[in-house]
Specification:
The complex is a heterodimer of chains A (218) and B (294). Chain A is mainly alpha-helical. Chain A has helices at 2-25, 29-67, 72-91, 106-137, 143-158, 161-166, 170-205. Chain A folds into 3 domains: 1-69; 86-137, no CATH class; 142-218. Chain A contains 7 helices and no strands. In chain A, α2 packs across α3. With 294 residues, chain B is of the alpha/beta class. In chain B, 57% of the residues lie in helices and 11% in strands. Chain B is elongated and about 105 Å long. Classes of the chains: A mainly alpha (218), B alpha/beta (294). At the A-B interface, α2, α4, α5, α6 and α7 of A face α2, α5, α6, α9 and α10 of B.
């Protein structure tokens, strides 16, 4: 069992990790064909992850309802939403799921008139919280905070047309802030992030990092 | 008093935003929308291929309805620009929620301009895998997408029949609300398959894109609602993004006013605190001197 649980996944990670890196640098048709095959396998595996996600979602909310945890009523809506969307998708204006999804059916209606407005409204609420949080926390306590405050005000005004009315060169100043100091900082951060990603990938490939197997590093 | 003003009830802040945005929507005023250089770069990248025979553009809908107000106007206008210039346009999605949005964008413009699916445009839909889907498209487009979203073979449709790999597209535009633009498109498609990539992203993502603009891995960038409004202006078809500029300007001004007001109150309260502290110290010194003298 230990072989199946530990050793085999480590071998798979090593073989496919090294092969994928090697394929990137081999300019040959056979390497391209193998990349294509790997890509198709990966997509099949990724598709199965949706079943796991669905199972995880259903069991999580079933537990909440069973234990009557705070806000368990909302979990009923999760089931209602899943059943409504899946039923609408399968029914497909009477053509069922064997053909591509038909336009203007119940699924489209639910997506356009329920899902889109609901999610857009949730996101729109951010404007209120940002305003409140900015008022409470954006204080000129230190020199760095003052610089941040001034830069934020310029970017906020430079990104909207009213900034042009205040000062015609506001968009240019905003553009400079974004493409010089911001870009320099971002590039430094990105280099650090990607070097870290390379190090983590190598740790996974060589079996040093094993947390993805579950149960911690033992 | 200053303490009370420093801790204004958040509902007052919410109300100010509602009033400002509501007033801006009810009584809009025309505002100047000068297109920024990065938005013009995306527009020019599409414009540059219009004279090329069989030019093809790929649009990737990598966003969900939360970003619909910022990115959908860009999608609609780029599709319109392509269709008006007889550029064949193909859509796909790396996010499952992008399918409904992509279809809606193609349906609306194709219906408006009388363009035929399969001949002038098609929508491929969504497939899982993200990185491996791009790698698959890079090596063999038709094995990644043997049929489109509607079930038609990509080998038979005039719009896709001569596309054998990702690099055959003259321009690719990703409309992204997540890290697929840099972690997937830039990393795998641009560097490996040498595509010409443009981006349309949400406003909060745009600062992350500047390193790729400077390196040339992104040819241009349409960022946020403002970028979408600028694209509408270039395309001479003002729509929801242009209308959104007035309420957005109002909201930004209100936020800046609140930040300014909060800082003035903070400085006043800090000055008072310092003055109080100074007078306490003086009193203590005076008492100490009095004690020493007595």
């Amino acid at each position: 069992m230990l072989f199946l649980k530990r050793t085999l996944p480590l071998i798979i990670a090593f073989v496919f990790g090294i092969t994928a890196i090697a394929l990137y640098y081999i300019p040959h048709q056979k390497a391209a064909n193998l990349t294509e095959t790997f890509a198709m396998w990966d997509r099949l595996i990724a598709a199965f992850a949706y079943f796991l996600a669905l199972y995880s979602l259903i069991s999580l909310h079933a537990r909440r309802i069973r234990r009557q945890q705070a806000g368990w009523g909302y979990s009923l809506f999760v089931y209602f939403g899943i059943v409504a969307m899946v039923a609408a998708g399968f029914y497909n204006r009477g053509h069922w799921a064997l053909v591509g999804l038909e336009s203007d059916g119940a699924y489209d209606w639910l997506f356009t008139y329920v899902y889109i407005p609901a999610e857009a409204s949730m996101f729109a609420l951010l404007a209120f919280f940002i305003a409140s949080a900015a008022y409470r926390t954006f204080r000129a306590r230190t020199t760095e905070a003052v610089i941040l405050l001034v830069a934020a005000a310029i970017v906020m005004l430079g990104r909207v047309p009213v900034g042009v009315l205040i000062w015609s060169r506001m968009p240019e100043l905003q553009e400079w802030l974004m493409s010089v100091p911001n870009m320099a900082a971002k590039r430094g951060i990105l280099l650090g992030v990607y070097l870290g990603a390379v190090a983590t990938a190598l740790r996974v490939i060589f079996g040093i990092e094993r947390s993805y197997l579950g149960g911690g590093e033992d | 008093m200053t303490d009370r003003l420093l801790n204004v009830d958040r509902r007052i802040v919410f109300l100010a935003i509602v009033v400002a945005v509501g007033a801006a929507m009810l009584w809009p005023v025309p505002l100047p929308i000068p297109p920024s250089p990065y938005v013009m770069d995306v527009y020019r990248a599409v414009d540059a291929i219009k004279s090329k025979p069989n030019a093809k553009v790929l649009l990737s809908f990598d966003f969900d309805p939360a970003s619909d107000p910022e990115l959908q106007p860009v999608a609609i206008n780029v599709i319109r620009q392509c269709m008006q210039n007889n550029i064949r346009v193909v859509g796909m999605a790396l996010w499952p929620e992008g399918v409904g949005l992509g279809r809606a964008a193609f349906d609306s413009v194709a219906h408006e301009l009388g363009k035929e699916r399969g001949k002038h445009w098609t929508f491929l839909g969504y497939k899982p895998g993200i990185v491996t889907l791009i790698l698959n498209m890079g090596e063999n487009f038709k094995s990644a997408w043997p049929i489109d979203y509607f079930g038609t073979s990509t080998a038979l449709m005039p719009v896709t029949q001569d596309i054998s790999r990702l690099g055959d597209f003259d321009f690719v535009l990703t409309l992204a609300a997540g890290n697929t633009i840099d972690a997937v498109w830039v990393t795998y498609a641009v560097d490996r398959y040498k595509i010409k990539l443009g981006g349309a992203v949400t406003a909060v993502m745009s600062p992350d894109m500047f390193p790729y603009l400077q390196s040339g891995q992104l040819v241009g960038l349409v960022s946020g609602l403002a970028g979408a409004a600028e694209y509408e202006k270039l395309e001479k078809s003002p729509g929801s993004a242009t209308r959104g500029m007035v309420p957005q300007s109002a909201a930004h001004v209100v936020i800046i006013l609140f930040i300014g007001f909060g800082n003035i109150m903070y400085l006043i309260s800090r000055r008072r605190e310092r003055a109080g502290e100074l007078s306490r110290l003086r009193k203590r010194d005076a008492v100490a001197k009095g004690g020493a003298g007595g």
